[in-house]
Amino acid sequence: MKLKLEITATDGLARTGVVSTARGSFATPVFMPVGTRGAIRSLSTHELAGLRTAEGSRAEILLANTYHLMLRPGAETVAALGGLHRFSGFTGHMLTDSGGYQVFSLGPKVTAEGARFKSTYDGTSYMLTPEGAVKTQELLGADMQMVLDVCAPLPSSESVLRDAVETTAAWAARARLAHRRTHDQALLGIVQGGDNIMLRRESAQRTVELDFDAYAVGGLSVGETRERMLPALQSALAELPVDQPRYLMGVGDPLSILEAVSLGVDMFDCVLPTRLARHGTLLTDSGRLNIKRAEFARSEDPVDPNCPCATCANYSRGLLRHLSCLGETTAHTLCTIHNLTWILGFVDQIRRAIANGKLEEFRSQVTPVWSTMGPGLGE
User: Fold this and answer.
1) Residue-level pLDDT at 376
2) How many distinct structural domains can be found in the chain?
């Protein structure tokens, strides 16, 4: 089932619109919180469902990870429990990664057949093939699934990037043939090529030729600067269909989201808001705030006076500092509620700026605040 984007407004290459699916629809640009094992760390699904931005937006898509779920509790178990939506309790859209990021992060042995991992839980050897990734994700039952790909680190030599492009293309063709759950689950192809502009263009063209339901750009935010990331991204986007959503994988710092939207990206995911929250780093309209700093010990102020989240409405910086310094899990929850609400609200502002033809004005306001945070995790 093709994911069609109905564009409602544009500002340069940036666009805002609505994507229709078998489940319903969602607005773009959209940020997808990451619930790797079927839930966001330190946050229950009903708490996630209760988040609302100042404009009334909520988390419309939750991302879960195929590699982790196939190992614990197992895709068959998730299917027996009604599929990922019933299993997690999330009623919105869901997307599953294929395990391709683990090809990058865990360093399995990659062959033409697939990737052989050692389980991070018990050391058991496991071969993940393109067909196996599709079947596993069909059992999990998310609304959108990703093909298995090879994500090369940056910097990498041209030969390494070329190998990643070739393997990803071959695996994508196999995944396309293996996909059977076409009535209610979209299959997204992934563009690779690192920071090499020509390889990015080639990979995008070859991926589009396979006629996927939508398209993603992977292999960025893996060690390169934003200055290296954006030209590679732009070269890939130029080859992707304009009427289908474009997903930039693993990018979640505010400025990179804004710059990518300016180039025509519609979807994002990243662990940045939740991971930073667990370490006491909060996202605010004034930039990053380290809540553990001594200056906040007696502060009665909210984290961000402009934020509508339950944390800012009910708790002081002083309490959050106290709980964070003690490592209390309550602090992780309260900070996660704030960071997710803030990043969802930030994307709301981008949508509004596009609709009003004022994206460049918004960009000039935001850039000085977030220019020191690099792409990805911002660490």
Assistant:
1) 56
2) 2
